[in-house]
Amino acid sequence: MNRTGLYIALAIAVVTGLVFGFYPELDLRISRYFHGIVDGAGNTFALRFSETLMLARDSGLKVSTILVAAAVIALVVKLVLPRHKMLMPGRAVLFLIATMALGPGLLVNVVLKETWNRPRPIDVRQLGGVETFVPWWDPRGDCGKNCSFVSGDVSGAFWTLAPAALAPPQWRAAAYGAALALGTAMSAFRVIAGGHFVSDAIFAGVFTFLIIWLAYALIYRWPRTRLSDEAVEQRIERAGRLCYKLNKRLFAIISEKP
Fold first, then answer.
1. pTM, rounded to two decimals
2. What letters, b where the CB count within 10 A reaches 16 and e where it falls short, cover 24-62?
3. pLDDT in the model for residue 174
4. How confident is the model at residue 256 (pLDDT cuts 50, 70, 90)?
5. In terms of CATH architecture, what is 3-256?
6. What is the spatial distance between Cα 85 and Cα 76, in angstroms, rounded to a whole number?
7. Is 118 in a helix, a strand, or coil?
8. Where are the domains of the chain?
9. Average pLDDT, the chain
10. Which of 99, 73, 115 is nearest to 216 (CA)?
C-alpha cells in the first residue's frame, strides 16, 4: 500500500475513463462477443449457465466472505468477553471491517449501484434487451436499482487486497498477486455472463483499491492518524464493558416489571 500502487490505480482510472468515455462503443463491442455465445435453448451470454464458471464465481465470493468473517468474529468475541485478548490484532480488525463496509458495502452497493442507473449489458437493446445503453460516466440510464456501475462481485473480490496488505512481508507479494488474480478472474466472469461492462469491472477494482489505500494510510502509516493495536483493543474493550452494563441494567428493569 505505497505511493506506487496509488499512482498505478489513478493512472488506470484516468486511462479507463478517457478510453471508455470517448469510445463507449468499446464496452458494447467486448460484451457483444460474449452475447454471441448461444446455447441450444437460444440463450445469449450462454456461458453464464456454465456450472464450472458459476462454481468458480461462487468460490471467489466465499474467499472475501471468509476473510472478513474472521475479523467480525474477533470483534464480536472481544465485545462479549472484553477482558480476553483479541483473537486478531486490533488494527487488523478495524482495517478489514472498515474497508469492506466502506468499499463493497457503502460505496458500491448502496451509493453507486442504487443511484448510477446504467443498464447491464444483458438488458440493453444492442444486446437483446429493452433498455438504452449509456457510457460509464452517464448516470441517467433506464435501470431502476441494482445497476451495472460498478460491479459488487468484482469489488468484493478486489477487497482481498486489504488482507493481502497485512500479510507478512515475505508473503506479501504473493498475497497481492493472488488478490489481483481473484479480482481479474471475477471481472472476467461478470463480463462473460453479461452482468457488467468492462469499464464497470475496472472502476470497481480501482474504487475499492483507493478506499483500501486511504484506510491503510490512516490506520497504519500517517503519523497524525495512525493507531496502535493496543489503543484499538482498549476502545473495543470499553465498548464491550459499556454494552454489558447497559444490557445488565435493561435486564434489571425488565425483571422489576410485574
1. 0.92
2. beebbebbeebbeeeeeeeebbbbbebeebeeebeebbe
3. 97
4. low
5. Up-down Bundle (1.20)
6. 12
7. coil
8. 3-256
9. 93
10. 99
